[in-house]
From TrEMBL:
GO MF annotations in UniProt: ABC-type transporter activity; lipid transporter activity
Protein name stated in the entry: ABC transporter A family member 7-like protein
Pfam families (UniProt xref): ABCA12_C
InterPro entries for this protein: ABCA
Signal peptide: none
GO cellular component: membrane
Protein species of origin: Trifolium pratense
Amino acid sequence: MKGRYGGTYVFTMTTSSDHEKDVENMVRQLTPNANKIYHLSGTQKFELPKEDVKIANVFQAVEVAKRNFTVFAWGLADTTLEDVFIKVARHAQAFETLS
């Protein structure tokens, strides 16, 4: 199940709210296929398709960002099984709504 629905990395970055657009632009440069999951008070979370992104490029982009503005925290993780279940449940709920 994770192999079928979990083909993404989860990228999270926390900056001041002033730099949210900078983070979004950085992520779009990594892959135009990124999906913003949420943003709240300077923290943003994105799904990055694994086939589009090299981990080394993410680290490089973060280092450049840290030189341009303050990055309070960031992380890159493989999709968790919980993320996969949430995604499947949302798709099922959307399908039921359309039926």
